[in-house]
Design goal:
Blueprint: H1 3-18, H2 23-30, H3 43-54, E1 63-69, E2 75-81, E3 84-92, E4 98-104, E5 107-115, E6 121-127, E7 130-138, E8 144-150, E9 153-161, E10 167-173, E11 176-184, E12 190-196, E13 199-207, E14 214-220, E15 223-231, E16 237-242, E17 250-254, H4 267-273, H5 318-325, H6 341-356, E18 381-382, H7 390-406, E19 425-430, E20 446-451, H8 453-462, H9 467-475, E21 481-482, E22 493-495, E23 501-506, H10 508-527, E24 536-544, E25 551-558, E26 569-573, E27 594-596, E28 602-606, H11 608-627, E29 634-641, H12 673-680, H13 682-685, E30 694-702, E31 714-729, H14 737-749, H15 760-774, E32 775-777
Biased composition (Acidic residues): 39-53
Domain PIPK: 388-775
GO molecular function, one term: 1-phosphatidylinositol-4-phosphate 5-kinase activity
Length: 779
């Protein structure tokens, strides 16, 4: 079938729908029958109608009722359409699992009920095979959850009643209690307040049902931590600082009347609370999205070779529709069948409308199949003895080992204003022979400076960085690796051997910007746990003594791409077009190459809850950067493609083997095992966060011919299952005089809106507009 014929065919479908006389026939040809919920009462009627109609037609593009024992022993009864369960149906697996409800093209979609052989049951909404929406899950031991679900996980508001009598009513995130919630134990005692990753954490109140006493204050990991008040029912109370460490406990008792000193130890509260455990609940045995359908052939099918569409998906009904309608002659080029002029005008108009709305792509060039990029070598050159920066690396490691090792543990994250003073720095001399506080070493003498040490120590605690692991990564036996070429700014980058941390040399101006905005940065990352801005762990300076007196300032950051997933594609996105393309030829591009805005050929579709959180966080982060007069930052994006053939070709998510076709067991095909295992394993939930190891769908785009500077291409309908990692980097460039001059100079030569150096307010708006086009909600 030619491309023009394909367009005419799509337009013919729309035209036929407009004609009441041909509406029923068009539905049977193109599969436009609306899916209705079938009840048991009218199942018999449907079956009789199917039997009656089967004697009059042999088409396979219609919705009908089917009941059959499948080759592997599975059983299905219900509505069927073109090789897939479609409508309402019941499916029984040989292992005892059962689904009754709505289907759409072979996927559980809509309202339904899923049962497990253990007696567990989920009843509610499904989406693309996942428990997604509002639903109720009842476990085999009696645990019950009623509330919101996202991709098989409790996410949103929900109430969980545990088999032992405990009840939690509140917010959930990724299957764990999060934000505000109330937990009531079976003895009547309850906690109401903040939660984090399934544990009591933040500000909240615990009330004991036994004696009416209560604790109001801050919590961490299920126990009081920080400022809090313990009150008795007689009105007396104890106010102080709470901690598991007795040496850090201090407070004052205030009696209700003229009572004497109370013989009471605050540690009794900790002993008592240890008896109040939060139930972990049951684990879902097998996720509905992991259940596969048996391959079988419908009794009403007339087997024909299937055609692959332009975007790689198997065509549904188009070939058969073409044969039935017989609109065109043979392949030898004979003319089209008779179509009256009115119909032809309607077809032409419909084709133009479909093209304008982007609903058809058949007249566009066929996309070349995508392949995995060449795997890049491990980044960086190991700094060994004889390297020009070997002594600098030794100095850096000695300084960090000294600075982190001597620092006391952070108790209170509420820092005084003086802690952010740029003058708050500590100089330490490191002679080769060593001193009372520094070890001997083989390098030349140098001085070491720590900027705002208390602030960065608190930041590392906020980011849950263990001091011992931090020192081991940077100062262990493994050497650092220097990236092959300095960045555009002239800075050098170094990676730790475990890839967890990146060290960047800093210009004096960048150091001043970071110190100026440090207080605002600290408050921002503390207020927004899911912030996408880069994480800073330390700011230091090495001053070489002797005749050179060279100062090297550097900042330690988190490496965004330190992940269990290999990164196949990397993009640095700003939302500008001038110079925003890679200068490497295609043959030199590999998985380590940083591509830019005009190289981007995807739209990223996030699940609804994640997309809404993404929108909120990008807005908050951009507002923060705009207030600090920062510009020229970018969103660094890494993509891991989950499905590829042995030959390295990417497998679109639509390229699955349809039911009714013979299935090649050796051929690669789309599977949800990876993401289901990730989501079903509580120990790995923590690895999924906004911007980190996020499952998503990437839709391929193509730029229109002659529109090479088009920032966002046209969607093709070709989707790929991916895992995404992203964050906002390069946040230390303020709109100083050099950037203002750059803007003025380039504005004379180029479109002012296309250049990167613009006012922070305009930059923030343009950046967000672009990012919100590249990232969309997955429907």
């Amino acid at each position: 079938m030619s491309k023009e014929q394909s367009c005419v065919l799509k337009a013919w479908e729309v035209t036929m729908r407009k004609t009441q006389q041909a509406k029923k026939r068009a539905n049977s040809i193109f599969g436009t029958v609306p899916v209705a919920l079938q009840t048991d009462d009218d199942a018999t009627t449907t079956e009789e109608n199917d039997e009656e109609s089967s004697t009059n037609t042999s088409s396979v593009g219609e919705l009908y009722h089917e009941e059959r024992v499948l080759p592997n022993g599975d059983y299905y009864t219900g509505q069927w359409y073109d090789s897939f369960p479609h409508g309402h149906g019941k499916y029984l697996w040989t292992d005892g699992c059962m689904y009754i409800g709505e289907w759409y093209n072979g996927k559980t979609m809509g309202k339904g009920k899923f049962g497990w052989p253990s007696g567990a049951m989920y009843e509610g909404e499904f989406k693309s095979g996942y428990m997604d929406g509002i639903g109720t899950y009842t476990g085999p031991s009696g645990d019950t959850y009623k509330g919101q679900w996202v991709m098989n996980l409790k996410h949103g508001h929900g109430i969980k009643s545990f088999a032992n009598g405990d009840v939690y009513d509140g917010e959930w995130r990724r299957g764990l209690q999060e934000a505000q919630g109330k937990y009531r134990w079976r003895d009547g005692s309850y906690y109401i307040g903040e939660w984090k990753n399934g544990t009591i954490c933040g500000k909240g109140t615990f009330v004991w049902s036994t004696d009416g006493s209560r604790y109001d204050g801050f919590w961490d990991d299920g126990f009081p931590c920080g400022n809090g008040t313990f009150k008795w029912d007689d009105g007396s109370f104890y106010v102080g600082h709470w901690s598991k460490d007795p040496e850090e406990m201090n407070g004052t008792y205030y009696p209700s009347g003229n009572e004497g000193t109370l013989e009471w130890d605050p540690k009794d509260v900790f002993d008592n609370l240890s008896e109040y455990k939060v139930c972990s609940g049951e684990r879902v045995p097998v996720l509905p999205s992991q259940k596969k359908l048996s391959v079988w052939n419908s009794s009403k099918r007339v087997e024909k070779p299937r055609r692959i569409s332009v975007d790689g998906r198997v065509s549904v009904g188009l070939d058969r529709a073409f044969e039935k309608m017989n609109m065109w002659g043979s392949e030898s080029g004979e003319g089209a069948a008779d179509i009256d002029s009115t119909t032809r005008r309607d077809l032409d108009a419909e084709i133009m409308r479909l093209e304008a709305e982007g609903l058809i792509q058949s007249l566009r060039p066929t996309p070349v199949p995508m392949r995995l990029p060449k795997a890049g070598k491990k980044q960086g050159e190991t700094i060994s003895k004889g390297h020009r920066n070997y002594e600098l690396m030794l100095n850096l490691q000695l300084g960090i080992r000294h600075a982190v090792g001597k620092q006391a543990q952070v108790v209170n994250l509420d820092l005084k204003h003086s802690a952010f003073d740029p003058k708050e720095k500590v100089w330490t001399r490191f002679p080769p022979e060593g001193t009372k506080h520094t070890p001997p070493h083989q390098s030349s003498e140098f001085k070491w400076k720590d900027y705002c040490p208390l602030v960065f120590r608190s930041l590392r605690k906020l980011f849950k960085v263990d001091p011992a692991d931090y020192m081991l990564s940077i100062c262990g036996n493994d050497a650092l690796r220097e990236l092959s070429s300095p960045g555009k700014s002239g800075s050098f980058f170094y990676l730790t051997n475990d890839d967890r941390y990146m060290i960047k040399t800093m210009k004096k101006s960048e150091t001043k910007v970071l110190l100026r905005m440090l207080a605002a940065y600290y408050n921002h990352v503390r207020a927004f746990e899911n912030t996408l801005v880069i994480r800073f762990y330390g700011l230091h300076c090495v001053k070489l003594t002797g005749t050179i007196q060279k100062k090297v300032r550097f900042v330690i950051m988190g490496n965004l791409f330190c992940s269990e997933y290999s990164i196949h594609r990397r993009f640095d996105l700003k939302g500008s077009s001038l110079g925003r393309t890679t200068d490497k030829p295609e043959s030199e591009i590999n998985s380590n190459t940083i591509l830019k805005d005009l190289d981007l050929n995807f739209i990223f579709r996030l699940q609804k809850a994640w997309f809404q959180e993404f929108i909120r966080q990008v807005d908050k982060d951009c507002e923060f950067l705009e207030q600090e007069r920062i510009m020229d930052y970018s969103l660094l994006v890494g993509i891991h493609f989950r499905e590829a053939s042995v030959a390295g070709e990417l497998i679109p998510s639509g390229a699955r083997t349809p039911l009714g076709e013979s299935e090649d067991e050796t051929a690669p095909r789309l599977s949800r095992v990876d993401v289901d295992q990730l989501l079903s394993d509580p120990t790995r939930w923590a690895s999924i966060r906004l911007g980190g190891n996020m499952p998503a769908r990437a839709e391929r785009t193509m730029r229109r011919s002659g529109c090479e500077l088009q920032l966002v291409g046209e969607p093709t309908g070709e989707y790929y299952e991916v895992v995404m990692i992203f964050g906002i980097i390069d946040i230390l460039q303020d709109y100083d005089i050099s950037k203002k001059l750059e803007h003025a100079y380039k504005s004379i030569q180029y479109d002012p809106t296309s250049i990167s150096a613009v006012d922070p307010r305009l930059y923030s708006r343009r950046f967000r507009d672009f990012i919100f086009k590249v990232f969309t909600e997955d429907d």
